[in-house]
């Protein structure tokens, strides 16, 4: 979970620093995939009773919000 969550931000950063929309888009896709991986870990943690349902719901909604931000950023690129 730690690796996937770090991957979200590092891929956004690396893609942005490439200064090419096509490359940035690819890194955003990877970032979105990592965000989905984090979200699935929250679901698994809740099912295994590592975290409460309310906490899982809050974390999943945060992840969904990050996903929306990534999609909006993708929509600004010219590829």
Question: What features would you highlight for this structure?
Answer:
about 80 residues; mainly alpha; single chain
Characterization of this structure:
It is a single chain. With 79 residues, the chain is mostly helical. The chain has 3 helices and no strands. Helix 1 packs antiparallel against helix 2 (21-47) and helix 2 (21-47) packs antiparallel against helix 3.
Portion of residues within helices: over 70%
The total of beta strands comes to: 0
Rg (C-alpha, Å): 14 Å
Low-confidence stretches: none
Q: Total number of helical segments?
A: 3
Q: First CA to last CA: what distance?
A: 31 Å
**Mean pLDDT score:** 97
Order of helices and strands: HHH
Strand proportion, as a percent range, falls in under 5%
What is the 3D form? elongated
Q: Main beta sheet, described?
A: none
Could you say which structural class the secondary elements and strand pairing correspond to?
Answer: mainly alpha
Question: Short summary of the structure?
Answer:
The chain is elongated.
Outline the secondary-structure elements.
Elements lengths: L1 H16 L3 H27 L5 H23 L4
Helix pairs in contact: 1-2, 2-3
